Amino acid sequence: MSINNEQINIEKVLVKAIYRAPEQYLNRELSVAGWVRTVRSSKEFGFIELNDGSFFKSLQVVFAADLPNFSEIEKVSVGSSLYVSGRLVESPAAGQPFELKAQSITVINQAPADYPLQKKRHSFEFLRTIAHLRGRSNTFSAVFRLRSVLSFAIHKFFHDEGFAYVQTPIISTSDAEGAGEMFQVTTLDLKDPPRDPKGEIDYSRDFFGQKAGLTVSGQLNAEALAMGLNKVYTFGPTFRAENSNTTRHASEFWMMEPEVAFNDLSANMDLAEKMLKYLIRSALEALPEEMEFFNKFIDPGLKERLDNIVKADFARVSYTAAVEILEKSGEKFAYPVKWGIDLQTEHERYLTDQVYQKPVFVTDYPKDIKAFYMRINEDGKTVAAVDLLVPGVGEIIGGSQREERLEYLEKRMAEMGLKTEDYGWYLDLRRYGSVPHAGFGLGFERLIMYLSGMANIRDVIPFPRTPKNADF
Q1: N- to C-terminal Cα distance for the chain?
Q2: How many other C-beta atoms lie within 10 A of the C-beta of residue 383?
Q3: How far is 55 from 72, CA to CA, in rounded Å?
Q4: Is 280:154 a contact under the CB 8 Å cutoff?
Q5: What's the CA gap between 381 and 412, in Å, rounded?
Q6: Helix 424-431 and helix 219-229: axis angle, to 10°?
Q7: 388 and 272 in contact (C-beta within 8 Å)?
Q8: Cβ-contact 134, 123 below 8 angstroms
Q9: 33: Cβ–Cβ under 8 A, 6 or more apart, which residues?
Q10: What is the pLDDT of residues 100-144, one digit of tens each?
Q11: Distance between CA 9 and CA 7 in Å, rounded?
């Protein structure tokens, strides 16, 4: 049966709307469109599980032998797309609140027998090879709806808190972290690039007249905008050319970074705590079915852990005190603990899971293991940095009070071998009306992993970009 524009433009009801307010649709005529999850039939009638992507659950469609194209519909395959019109009625089957008694079913596209997502368990590794189709599976449709809800919740939280949403450059000439892990952006002929008198590549002849790359962070630009708008946040893609093949690293990911003028480290922690609790509540309230699925099938105990975070008053401890706790714990860590090292995940999880049994802010790290822009403390050895550690994972948020004093910042940059001429505009912020300010960064995918229980960052990004992988 062919499709005409009248059928395409017919007013369709989303499956989510039916589940959320069934009283509005029961015993009424309606139309839906979706993909076949399962189909079974006998000589007299058949059942189709139809999912339109709007909701975790599917709608049961019942079709009888008096349907004009009954013989065609009973042969419809998993993955096929359909238009269905009929009457929504209460279902006599236990556990099924309602069903759609079909009056007409139109096959939009009959999926062939080799459709990869048959009704059986598929490994996440296999589903990554068909990333263009995995959004139709229970797990990944739930993950990507969670991603959508959290995206909106981030904007809603900061809007309600009086922040301005600012867009920082994707192409940058500044390596904010100073780690040299930027993807290069160039229009030069890679086979025969222009050379300067020293034989080095002449970037003055490149598109931007200098070496440029994809941004690793919007923080420095956000600082500049906070100096005029007071409270700002960025939320967009960032990139790291880091050859890391772990379950927690990706080459392209999204970062959410607020920056607040006239703010110190303590107020920065208050904001991070308030935001994280808001985001967790938003997910639990907006997606109860998805969160229950994650709790049951992906990460047992997830909901209890999230509920505990929402109810907890986050602990605060200095790095120095945390190291003392770890040293006195008697635990045999794979990475020995001593003052001056960067805390490892095993150390962070011991603090959250064993010592505090709730989220904890660790503050005032040694300056030698932190970025150049963090404010030097009075002891001259530590900086006003903070990491938020959460049970089950470890670090989820990293931030700091920024160094607002020009002479301290210049000295710190010199110590780290950074050229001040590369950061002239950033230093100007300390010359012209400098104020104390602070901010933090939250890796969006890390947040989704934590709220879903998914163990691999590749499974919370629709089309992940990792070393040697840029398919789709």
Answers
A1: 32
A2: 28
A3: 27
A4: no
A5: 12
A6: 30
A7: yes
A8: no
A9: 12, 52, 81, 82, 83, 84, 108
A10: 999 999 999 999 999 999 888 899 999 999 999 999 999 999 999
A11: 5
Strand order in the sheet with 164-165: 164-165, 231-239, 252-261, 437-443, 394-401, 382-390, 360-366, 315-318
Rounded CA-CA distance 396/92 in Å is 47
Q: How far is CA 80 from CA 6, 73, 188, in A?
A: 20, 10, 47
Q: pLDDT tens digit string along 373-422?
A: 999 999 999 999 999 999 988 999 999 999 999 999 999 999 999 988 88
68-87 tens-digit pLDDT: 999 999 999 999 999 999 99
Structure tokens at 317: 């401890």
Please state, as a whole number, how many other Cβ atoms lie within 10 Å of the Cβ of residue 15. Answer: 22
Bridge partner residues of 171 (DSSP) = 214
Bridge partners (DSSP) listed for residue 90: 98
Cα dihedral angle (60, 65, 70, 75), rounded to 10 degrees? 70
Bridge-based pairing of strands 212-214 and 184-185 is antiparallel
The tokens for 124 are 């996440």
Annotate the chain with three-state secondary structure. CCCCHHHHCCCCCCHHHHHHCHHHCCCCEEEEEEEEEEEEECCCEEEEEEECCCCCCCEEEEEECCCCCHHHHCCCCCCCEEEEEEEEEECCCCCCCEEEEEEEEEEEECCCCCCCCCCCCCCHHHHHHCCCCHHHCHHHHHHHHHHHHHHHHHHHHHHHCCCEECCCCCEECCCCCCCCCCCEECCCCCCCCCECCCCCECHHHCCCCCCEEECCCCHHHHHHHHHHHCEEEEEEEEECCCCCCCCCCCCEEEEEEEEEECCCHHHHHHHHHHHHHHHHHHHHHHCHHHHHHHHHHHCCCHHHHHHHHHHCCCEEEEHHHHHHHHHCCCCCCCCCCCCCCCCCHHHHHHHHHHHHCCCEEEEEEEHHHCCCCECECCCCCEEEEEEEEECCCEEEEEEEEECCCHHHHHHHHHHCCCCHHHHHHHHHHHHCCCCCEEEEEEEHHHHHHHHHCCCCHHHCCCCCCECCECCC
Output the six-digit token pair for 169: 């450059």
Q: Report how far residue 254's alpha carbon sits from residue 184's, in angstroms, rounded to the nearest whole number.
A: 18
CB 407 within 8 A of CB 376: no
At what angle are helices 265-286 and 138-160 packed, to 10 degrees?
140
The verdict on pTM exceeding 0.85 is: yes
If pLDDT is split at 50, 70 and 90, which confidence band does 177 have?
low
Q: How far is CA 83 from CA 32, 116, 127, 172, 180, in A?
A: 6, 22, 27, 47, 53
For residue 29, report the phi and psi dihedrals to the nearest 5 degrees.
Answer: -80, 135
Tally of CA atoms within 13 A in the half-sphere of 438 that contains its CB: 20
Model confidence at 472: pLDDT above 70: yes
